Structure formats: structure tokens, C-alpha cells
Amino acid sequence: MGTGLTIVVIAVVLALGFGLYRARTDGRFKNAPGQLVERPDEVVEQRGAPATSGRRDHPAAPAVGAAWAAVLEALPDAQLGERATLLQFSSAFCAPCRATRTILGDVADVVPGVVHLEVDAEHHLELVRALDVLRTPTTLILDASGSEATRASGAPRKEAVLSALDGIVEG
């Protein structure tokens, strides 16, 4: 086998592996640090440390309740949902952001007390940094007190959003 063909095969295998990884992780909700994620068909995962961008000089993710305070600092007119808030970070040229906007808007219309708030990541970089948002779309689900309960990077499915809300929004 020639060198060129070997390089092509390696590139295809790497691209396939990365594609499978992204398909498995995009749009999946991960609980806030220190909480258990329990799903009947998946392994239980415990996340003990706050999410960071990987840089050593990057501050830890905000403490409990600080998520909404950071939002209010950037968007003073924002309103917290009675039961939960779907906080979506988007950008202008993000195709999955449009689909996410539709899904989260539909969920907010169906579930009483839930509000959808979309933030343009490009115009609110301080908020993006404060909440450690690394890509768009990213969806944070805040509970009634404004604490981050869970987050998903990538476009979530409607069923995943409703399932994540089940543990947050009670009766």
C-alpha cells in the first residue's frame, strides 16, 4: 500500500472516530458539578469538579446561584422563569442554533413556568466566559433559584430537554 493511500485511510478513520464521538455527545445534558446523572440505559456518571476550559488560569464555573447573577449583570431586563429557565447561547451564523431556538421555544410554550432566554454569545463575551460556554449552541437549564442544574453543548432533542426538565420542574 502506498504512502498516499495510508494517509487517506488514517484520515478517514480519524474523521469517522471524531464524527461518532460528536454524534454521541452533542445535545446531551450533563448535570451540574457534584451531582449524579442517572439514566436507566447509561452508566452513572459523577462530575466532581466544576467545568473549565482546560486553562490553568481560568476561574472555576460560578458557584450555586451565581449563574443567574451573571445573566442579570449582562442582561438587566432578563426574567427568570417561575420553575426553570432555558438559557441558550447562540451566534449569528450557527445553523444548529436556529433548530435549538425552535425546540426550546416549543418546550417553554408547553411546560408552565418555564422561560426560554436566548443570548447572542458574540455580543456577551463576558457572560460566555463567566459561565464557561465553549461553543454554540449551548443550553443551560437554570432552576427556579437561578442555579445551573444542567447543560448541553450542541443541539438537544426536544425529548432530552423535557427529560432534563422532569428532574428540575416539580408538579
Verbal overview:
The protein has 171 residues and is α+β, with helices and mostly antiparallel strands. 37% of the residues lie in helices and 19% in strands. It has 5 helices and 7 strands. The strands form 2 sheets. The protein has a 5-stranded mixed β-sheet with strand order 1-7-6-4-5. Strands 2-3 form a two-stranded antiparallel ribbon. Strand 2 and strand 3 form a beta hairpin. The longest helix has 23 residues. It is elongated and about 65 Å long. The N and C termini lie far apart (63 Å).
Number of helices: 5
- Please tally the β strands and state the result: 7
Strand content: 15-25%
- Average pLDDT over all residues: 79
Spatially, the strands of the biggest sheet line up as: 1-7-6-4-5
Point out poorly predicted stretches.
34-64
What structural class do the secondary elements suggest? alpha+beta
Order of helices and strands: HEEEHEHEHEEH
Helix content: 25-40%
Q: Please outline the major beta sheet.
A: 5 strands, mixed
Based on Cα principal axes, name the global outline: elongated
First CA to last CA: what distance? Answer: 63 Å
Rg for CA atoms:
18 Å
